[in-house]
Write a structure and sequence with these properties.
The chain is an alpha+beta fold and 178 residues long. Helix content is 38%, strand content 29%. The chain is elongated, with a radius of gyration of 34 Å.
């Protein structure tokens, strides 16, 4: 079967007119492939790489509280647990700037301009980074808060997790009414 196909193809190529037709068809197929490669069949639009998603201050605090509550609740002997985290400040955003300094013998001036890009929602400054607030203190109220061993485990966990000193961590027993 394969030899029959080879023989027919050889017979086809021996004619100069058939070779011209074959080259013409191959050229058309090549052009169509180039044109089709330029067409995008996907409708997904990518976000610009400069666009940074950020979370709100309250969402950040709530997420920290929830994660820490889950972590501390999993320590042996803690029981029911509530956590409150205090922060030193709010989130700080650092934007790209062009700085121009002018200095003469008697004066000095500095001119700062934010670097702006044209985004989908209009002009926006380029966000370089967001600095999240530092943890200032943590209060933990739990069922096992009166047990010295449990208290020490909680203080050690929170201290190492947030890199804060143990005097900034309070652990107490939860009220029986709660």
């Amino acid at each position: 079967m394969a030899s029959e196909i080879k023989e027919k193809f050889k017979g086809f190529l021996q004619s100069k007119q058939n070779k011209t037709k074959l080259l013409f068809v191959a050229g058309i197929v090549g052009i169509l492939m180039i044109l089709l490669s330029e067409i995008s069949f996907t409708t997904d639009k990518k976000k610009p790489e400069t666009e940074v998603t950020s979370i709100s201050y309250s969402d950040y605090v709530n997420e920290l509280d929830d994660k820490l509550t889950d972590l501390i609740s999993s320590i042996d002997g803690v029981g029911k647990c509530k956590v409150m985290i205090t922060l030193k400040n709010t989130t700080e955003s650092v934007f790209a700037k062009n700085t121009q300094n002018n200095q003469t013998e008697s004066s000095y001036s500095q001119n700062d301009e934010y670097v702006i890009y044209d985004g989908e929602n209009g002009d926006s400054p380029i966000l370089l980074k967001e600095i999240f607030p530092q943890i200032e203190g943590v209060a933990v109220v739990c069922s096992g808060g009166d047990n010295i061993v449990v208290k020490e485990k909680i203080i050690q966990c929170v201290s190492s997790l947030f890199n804060i000193s143990s005097n900034r961590i309070s652990v107490s027993k939860i009220s029986a009414d709660y």
